[in-house]
Amino acid sequence: MTLWAGVVAVCGTLGMVLAGLFAARATRAAASATAEATRAAAQAQAEPNQRAEDRQAFEAIKTELRAELTSTREEVRSLRSLVRAFSWYVAQLTQQMRDHRIEPPPPPARVDEYNRTGV
């Protein structure tokens, strides 16, 4: 009987060791799953905040671009007005030269193109 008691004791001990190993493995898996769930919950919770930050950055960029576009449009209007004023002035000077029988030099190709096309 003692031999059987020793075998039972060894089997019992071996069973306990195996049960401990399975428990440790299950605990690690549970800890890993818990950590993953915590990370996913934090990400889900942070997502609305990230979207709000992205939206705020987009609005700031959009506002800056609109201001730049408005400034550029005003500058283009000013430059068009300046080109028209110079064109009118040069036309007057050219006419004065012709009135005094002085033939003005031909305009540069770009000016000639502008006079023909308006562009």
Describe the oligomeric state of these chains in a short phrase: single chain
Number of helices: 2
| Main sheet makeup | none
Q: Percent helix among the residues?
A: over 70%
Question: What is the tally of beta strands?
Answer: 0
Q: Could you tell me the strand content as a percent range?
A: under 5%
State the end-to-end CA separation: 114 Å
Q: Which consecutive residue ranges, at least 5 long each, have pLDDT under 50?
A: none
Rg over alpha carbons: 44 Å
Mean residue pLDDT: 80
The secondary-structure class comes to mainly alpha
Order of helices and strands: HH
Taken from the alpha-carbon principal axes, the silhouette is rod-shaped
What's this, in brief?
The protein has 119 residues and is an all-alpha fold. Helix content is 90%, strand content 0%. The protein contains two helices and no strands.
Give an overview in words.
- With 119 residues, the protein is mainly alpha-helical.
- Helix content is 90%, strand content 0%.
- The protein has helices at residues 2-99, 109-117.
- The chain is rod-shaped and about 140 Å long.
- The termini are far apart.
List the helices and strands and how they pair.
Layout: H1 2-99, H2 109-117
